[in-house]
Specification:
52% of the residues lie in helices and 13% in strands. It is an alpha/beta fold. The protein has three domains: 64 residues, no CATH class; 200 residues, 2-enoyl-CoA Hydratase, Chain A, domain 1 (Alpha-Beta Complex); 49 residues, no CATH class. The longest helix is centred in the middle third of the chain and has 19 residues.
Amino acid sequence: MHRLLSIVQNTKSVLRPRIRIRTVYNDWRLYSFVQTLTYCGVLGECQEIDMCEHIKKGSELMPAYTHITIERSHQDKIATITMRRPEVHNAFNAQLIQDLQAAFTELSTDTGLHAVILTGEGPSFSAGADLNMMKASATFTQEQNLNDALRLADLFDTINTFPCPVVARVNGTAMGGGLGLLAVCDIVIAVENARLAFSEVKLGIAPAVISPYVVRKIGETHARVLFVTGERFSASRAREIGLVHIVTTAEELDAVVEKTLGELLSGGPQAIRACKALALNVGHMDYDRVRSYTAETIATLRVSAEAQGRLRAFLEKR
């Protein structure tokens, strides 16, 4: 409830506040709470009908998540997904995996998005698999464990292929599957004191599901060391091997993220998506396919309204 009040107060009746709230409430009991806020003037009188109508139509809104929240900013061009299991360092359980999968699937249809920020609540980014989840997996059959792993694999693929850039705001520790999240994000900004490790080997397992994305990011030579030792390493080393792009202090983290968002917001949303697709795809194509794909991409962009409008504005400034 306190989290909802904080989000409402920060919204200040601008930029479609109902979007901020609809991802936080989980049941009808919060309806009377929001109504009370409206009458007290926290939301503003102009929002009363809008808020009530949309909360009554809860089934038509985005899903009510259990372990994440989604907040919109920058005129709805940026979405921030926050993992909210701070008591277990935002470790994965089945519900968190389901929430993240649903959130990224839902947001993938929003063509106005320039980027999504992924972060964690509390002192950690994500500690990987939840201990209770791992304990339960020990009682699963091989087939149940296979299905469980495939669901996690689907999540990483969904984030990796998300249409627009995903920015990891790494606010602290990232272990195991938490590093898998870093590997599937396009831009990774980490605090300098973040502790990182592919810790699976210490538990008698392996970073199997995340390995394709990690090896693609850091290369075989670094993976062969870090996978088999499970050793902890710093954000600075992660930057050296390509897993992290920017290292900053905790005090400067949000400012650095905001600067990165400024760069992303300066580009055209469709051009940004085309650029991400190029980076993901061209390295896996033969010459004939890449020749056709790249030519088609630039030809399509050149005749788009977005490109022509931006080119016209650029020429007029000169």
